[in-house]
Amino acid sequence: MASIESWKNRYTVREFDSTKIPTTEQIKHITDCLNYMPIQVTEDNPRLPNHFVFMLTPEDTEIKQLLVQHVFYIENPNEHFTALYDAPYVFLLVDTLRYYEGCNQFSPVADTAVFSVGIGVTTGVILTQALEAGLDVCQIACTKKFEDSDTKSSKILNLLNKRFAKEIKTLTDVHNEYKIKIGRIELGIGVGFGKTPTQNPRDVHKKTRLPFDSTKKLTKKQPFMYVDNV
What we know:
By secondary structure, the protein is an alpha+beta fold.
């Protein structure tokens, strides 16, 4: 398991060193666990997980560019989470659009509370296993809805469905009562080796030309997360 020193030194990476690629064994240390996590299903959908995990690799720069430019960003202050572009590996947590055989439209999972719990458990597993493998992590849940830009949304969804066609077919075959499509992208988790942060509070990313923040706060304990019973 990840040591306490790993947790003490953990921080949300602002810049990854894209020239340092994790080994196959380090990534496998994470992916081998994903099919064995506890999953909370919803009442209206008791047999299908309410989200799936897809993994982008160092070759998926086009998809990463579009995701950082149009999905993973905030407007106040204007910041794009370009760490997810630099990260050699990015785990995408997406909700599931599915319909029962015979229905004519896709629908999302209804129980948002259960959905949030599932996303949290998955994030915890990826984060813990990455730290145990000696890797750094950036987890980003700040996203814009696809509806904000229909043209870009279609392009991103088409690329993802093409990129993960084999995985989607496998998931559909396993859960053969449903037809499955990629829904909203809820969270991105970048994994790799973090760079030493710069001192400039605002920068422009060299490759994407998008604004980002290259600084990080000092690693420290969170106040009142846990208090000994004295």
